[in-house]
Amino acid sequence: MSERNIAIAGGGAAGFFAAIACAELAPQARITIFEATAHPLAKVSVSGGGRCNVTHACFEPRDLVKRYPRGHRELLGAFHRWQPRDTVAWFSQRGVELKTEPDGRMFPVTDSSQTIVDCLKAAAEHAGVQLRLRCGLVSAARIQSGGFEIRATTGEPVHADALLLATGGNRSSAGYDIAANLGHTVVPPVPSLFTFNVADPRIQDLAGISVADAVASVPELRLSERGPVLVTHWGLSGPGILRLSAWGARELHSREYRFPLWLNWAGGRSLEEVRAELAAQRVVHPKKHVSGSPILAIPQRLWERLVTAAGVKPDVIWTSMPNSAVNALADQITAGEYAVTGKSMNKDEFVTCGGVRLSDVDFKTMQSRICPGLFFAGEVLDIDGVTGGFNFQAAWTTGRLAGQGMAGFSL
Ligand SMILES: Cc1cc2nc3c(=O)[nH]c(=O)nc-3n(C[C@H](O)[C@H](O)[C@H](O)COP(=O)(O)OP(=O)(O)OC[C@H]3O[C@@H](n4cnc5c(N)ncnc54)[C@H](O)[C@@H]3O)c2cc1C
Asked: How far is 53 from 86, CA to CA, in rounded Å?
């Protein structure tokens, strides 16, 4: 690999990880990251609310792949080669310890994404990686004799023996154009991990209220997710909703984000189970107001709205509640229908569903099956995970494998 030129388009998580791996394995190679902006690793900086959710404490590849609406099949082998345990060890070897939160998300112990940015920059510099800022790749043409003639925004022509596209999941990215021009199919990119716009009296002005164990479903798409649901100023968010948006990203886009959402505020308990809970209230608290005694940890203010929606007046006490009202309330708790009329950006994390078609790539090396010497890593691929550190893990894994692949690549 001596005196080889390796060009990496994109100075994000995947590009840096690939560059470092390649430089460490092939110290004689000249490795350059071309970053379009003045700010490499910008998403790492803002990620996880400034704390960077680096990965997830899920160390069994078969379980891990279940968190990827797109890419689960291809990532299985890749995770056997580089998985969260390897990521944790990699950062630890470079002096960055990660901690695990109760829900499995892993963050640097400093709770600062700057720790991760500094670590990646130092490792790249130490390995001799060149970083060109404000230097985006515009085009790449394959040369008959091998390698690529690359054009950057600065105008200069660059020759590369191997080229990695790690340009991320921007919906209009030169990375996609370069991949398409070199013969690859780009699955049309659409957003994933978004929140739902819902204007409904049951949740109006309840922003900030959350239910820890709810089930959100879109029956017509056979989508269902269990997890925390949060009421926002515009509608609904929280891990349960974000996961649903990821699994339904393409179908919900094709419905222009207008669809009926069903909410079970009782952790998926059945109508019968909730009826039984309500009947028990009649016995235990016969003289209490229904509107003042929520069941199953439903927050008081949301409970009042559900009681009103069931047609129960505020002054009704449990013993005088007719069976029809019990049934209506049980319906509201287990199968309330809410009209979603659009989507909003999730401030914490958003990713792109779509990108370079996975069957065009050999996941052992991340090399193109169509264009020798061209490699892919990160969100430019048609891979995306749910929220929780899974998107960075895909970037570390594919970046690492691409780095190894480029180090071992010969013309
Ligand atoms: C606000 C926010 C918070 C997030 N938080 C988390 C989190 O905590 N945990 C998690 O797992 N995931 C998180 N994600 C998702 C995660 O950031 C991405 O999945 C990850 O950054 C993808 O890495 P990447 O290297 O493929 O792409 P990117 O990080 O997007 O990097 C691509 C780079 O390529 C550059 N580029 C683009 N086109 C060109 C070109 N033509 N030439 C040269 N350079 C180019 C871009 O400027 C960019 O620097 C978050 C996303 C957002 C937006």
From this structure: 16
Q: Whose CA is nearest to atom 14 of ligand 1?
A: 349
| Cα(92)–Cα(77) distance, integer angstroms | 24
Quick one: 118 exposed, middle or buried, by C-beta within 10 A (0-12, 13-18, 19+)? middle
Protein residue with its CA nearest to atom 38 in ligand 1: 167
pLDDT, tens only, 71-101: 999 999 999 999 999 999 999 999 999 999 9
- CA distances in angstroms from 117 to 41, 43, 55, 313, 340, listed in the order given: 7, 10, 15, 56, 38
> Is residue 1 helix, strand or coil?
coil
Tell me which of 33, 53, 150, 349 to substitute to probe ligand 1's pocket, judged by most ligand atoms within 8 Å of the beta carbon. Answer: 349
Q: What would the pLDDT profile of 313-340 be if each residue is shown by its tens digit?
A: 989 999 999 999 999 999 999 999 999 9
Architecture of domain 5-190+348-407: 3-Layer(bba) Sandwich (3.50)
Q: Is the dihedral of CA 116, 122, 127, 129 positive or negative?
A: positive
Cα–Cα separations (whole angstroms), residue 81 to 59, 70, 98, 383, 402: 12, 19, 20, 17, 12
**Phi/psi at 68 (nearest 5 deg)?**
-120, 100
Minimal-distance CA residue to ligand 1 atom 30: 168
CATH fold, domain 196-263+337-345, is Elongation Factor Tu (Ef-tu); domain 3 (2.40.30)
pLDDT digits (tens, 9 = 90+) for 120-129: 999 999 999 9
pTM of the complete model: 0.94
The SS3 assignment for 110 reads coil
- Identify whether the C-beta of residue 340 lies closer than 8 Å to the C-beta of residue 235: yes
